[in-house]
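Worked example 3 (structure in, sequence out).
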């Protein structure tokens, strides 16, 4: 027993270190993008740093100081962007198109890294999943409208590229009427080479799936009973059928046991926690170069879109600040997902890398996107904004980001201690 506890502790520590390493790699690649393009554009780079706060280690190589800082919450490549001087290699004295390339290079490298993670994630899976229906689970309801070999193109208006898109849209656009046991969606599929619109495709809830499972256990290998519980209990009307009346007469003990199963279903099908029962499966394909790259591209696009949707949900109040995560939360998530295998870890790594790239391109002061706004203004005006004015805007942005970082870090710590 002590050996098992030590092993679990060791694995937990290893997973946490893996999370820190992943976060480090994503930051390093981002800053390396800025650094490399700056050097290619013959700009002077004063410092290349990973982390923020006081320096733990530094070493000068040529004109650049390379440093590790105490707080692992970011990085920086110091180019003196907000300083005006006469040095021809200074950032502000280089052509504006070069400066745009340098600033955009960090996010670009995050996207490249995210795509590499997508490829690794696909290769780690047993097969390359598709969006084509391969078959249906026992007791499937959607099979009354959907068919095997249907390729899913849209669900409730959203284009579907990956299986994650299917899961996301079915779970985040759930359409279930008050008191109803059904979830209803609009599908667009490709069927026999034709695009077909399918309205009101119904799915049952997980309580229905549990009902089927419990019923199968009750029947076991006995003969003379219906294949599915819906023969005795109509989930459309939420009532017992005539066949159940016959069952009560012929086998009262079985009917009594079945009543317990049906009562459990009735008591749980309207609860908020009673999620949809996904009753179909999709085809998988053997790995080859073409489908691996195609799937990785589809995953990359899908992850980017999901991140944008999440930003929208944050702005419209669907998500609150208390649901945001900082570096501590990211490391905790990585350490948790790592226990599920490399495929899941690489999927999360891709999401984080792409997210970092997108966030950095947002037009927020102090972020790369905020600096790009000023560069594009300069490109249009043919005249730069004064360094002190731009610097003040970015300083305000840094302060706001620090406040936000304190809030999300506090939330991360609270979630660790509360298990939230």
């Amino acid at each position: 027993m002590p050996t098992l506890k030590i092993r679990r502790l060791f694995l937990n520590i290893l997973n946490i270190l893996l999370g820190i390493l992943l976060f480090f790699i994503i930051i390093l690649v981002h800053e390396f993008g800025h650094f490399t393009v700056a050097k290619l554009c013959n700009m002077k780079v004063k410092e290349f740093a990973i982390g923020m706060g006081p320096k733990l280690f530094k070493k000068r190589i040529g004109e650049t100081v390379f440093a590790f800082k105490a707080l692992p919450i970011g990085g920086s490549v110091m180019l003196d962007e907000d300083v005006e001087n006469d040095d021809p290699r200074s950032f502000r004295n280089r052509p504006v198109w070069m400066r745009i390339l340098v600033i955009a290079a960090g996010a670009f490298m995050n996207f490249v890294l995210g795509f590499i993670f997508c490829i690794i994630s696909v290769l780690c899976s047993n097969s390359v999943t598709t969006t084509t229906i391969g078959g249906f689970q026992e007791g499937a309801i959607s099979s009354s409208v959907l068919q095997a070999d249907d390729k899913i193109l849209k669900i409730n208006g959203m284009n579907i590229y990956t299986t994650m898109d299917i899961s996301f849209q079915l779970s985040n656009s759930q359409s279930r009427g008050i008191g109803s046991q059904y979830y209803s969606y609009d599908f667009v599929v490709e069927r026999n080479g034709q695009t077909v619109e399918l309205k009101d495709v119904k799915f049952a809830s997980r309580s229905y799936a549990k009902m089927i499972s419990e019923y199968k256990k009750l029947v076991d290998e006995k003969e003379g009973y219906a294949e599915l519980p819906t023969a005795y209990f109509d989930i459309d009307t939420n009532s017992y059928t005539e066949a159940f009346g016959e069952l009560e007469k012929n086998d009262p003990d079985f009917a009594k046991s079945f009543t317990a199963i049906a009562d459990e279903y009735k008591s749980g099908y309207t609860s908020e926690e009673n999620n949809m029962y996904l009753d179909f499966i999709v085809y998988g394909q053997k790995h080859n170069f073409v489908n691996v790259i195609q799937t990785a591209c589809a995953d990359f696009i899908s992850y980017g879109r999901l991140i944008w949707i999440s930003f929208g949900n944050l702005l419209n109040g669907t998500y609150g600040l208390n649901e945001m995560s900082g570096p501590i939360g990211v490391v905790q998530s990585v350490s948790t997902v790592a226990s599920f295998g490399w495929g899941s870890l690489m999927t999360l790594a891709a999401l984080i890398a792409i997210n970092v790239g997108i966030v950095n391109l947002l037009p927020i002061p102090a972020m790369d996107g905020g600096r790009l706004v000023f560069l594009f203004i300069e490109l249009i005006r043919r005249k730069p904004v004064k360094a002190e004015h731009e610097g003040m805007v970015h300083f305000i942005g840094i302060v706001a980001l620090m406040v936000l970082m304190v809030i999300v870090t506090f939330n991360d710590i609270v979630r660790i201690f509360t298990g939230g």
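Notes: The chain is about 55% helix and 20% strand. The radius of gyration is 28 Å.
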